[in-house]
Amino acid sequence: MPHPSHDLAACQPFPRPQPITLRGQYVVLEPLDAASHAAALWQAVHGQDAVWKWLGDGPYANEALLDDALKKKQVASDAVFFAIVPSDTGLCAGYLSLMRIDTANGVVEVGNVLLSPALQHTRAATEAQYLLARHVFDDLGYRRYEWKCNALNEPSRRAALRLGFAFEGIFRQHMIVKGHNRDTAWFSMLDSEWPARRQAFEQWLAPANFDAEGRQRTPLARH
Q1: Which residue among 41, 128, 176, 183 is least packed, with the fewest CB closer than 10 Å?
Q2: Does residue 22 lie in a domain region?
Q3: CATH of the domain at 40
């Protein structure tokens, strides 16, 4: 059962996220596995170096190097990586992770988000975020869910707000990434906010919210 955030004195360490499969209408999140996902992911991102701009690694010059990187991610001790597999293709088109896992306080961050062009601006990409948030709050009972990005990464900042995260501020000179300074924008979602966010996600993801051409009738931010 989720840990009730109003009874903090009774809280024990929160469950550590595990590499499990999460299924939705439009996408499946699978434990990242190089043997299963590297070839498809390479086809999805090859020649699309811009998708790596804000990440701490990549781009990769060939499939073998990407395969090696995925092998390291799948056994990482400090993060749990999930492959994003759209249901209509069955092929990995990106990944994301649960990272900075704080089981003592029930805090975790979604990060390392790689979306190939085929995933960007799709129902599958939004549902992937919904599935992971639902797992964090409903299954693991966490109290706080975080989103962080380079303060210059405007698309990521817009995405955080669209998905229902609240902006908390800028950590100046927070990191050095690929030889450059990174000021980090912090966002969060709390367990007390999740029921309303979950309802918004589910209303947006409902088939009735899309017309015959697949255009949304009501944006997620308005639900």
Answers
A1: 176
A2: yes
A3: 3.40.630.30
Question: Regarding beta strands 144-150 and 107-115, do their DSSP bridges make them parallel or antiparallel, or are they unpaired?
Answer: parallel
- Does a structural domain hold residue 60? yes
How many Å from the N-terminal Cα to the C-terminal Cα in the chain? 28
Number of domains into which the chain is organized = 1
Note the helical H segments in the chain: 34-45, 63-74, 123-134, 154-162, 194-205
Segment 195-217, tens digit of pLDDT: 999 999 999 999 999 999 999 99
* pLDDT tens track for 137-147: 999 999 999 99
CB 165 within 8 A of CB 189: yes
- Dig out the tokens for 70 from the structure: 């995925």
The confidence band for 5, taking pLDDT boundaries of 50, 70 and 90, is low
Residue span of the structural domain in which 207 resides: 18-222
Q: Is residue 4 part of a domain?
A: no
Predicted model pTM: 0.94
Cβ contacts of residue 157 below 8 Å, gap of 6+?
A: 149, 151, 167, 185, 187
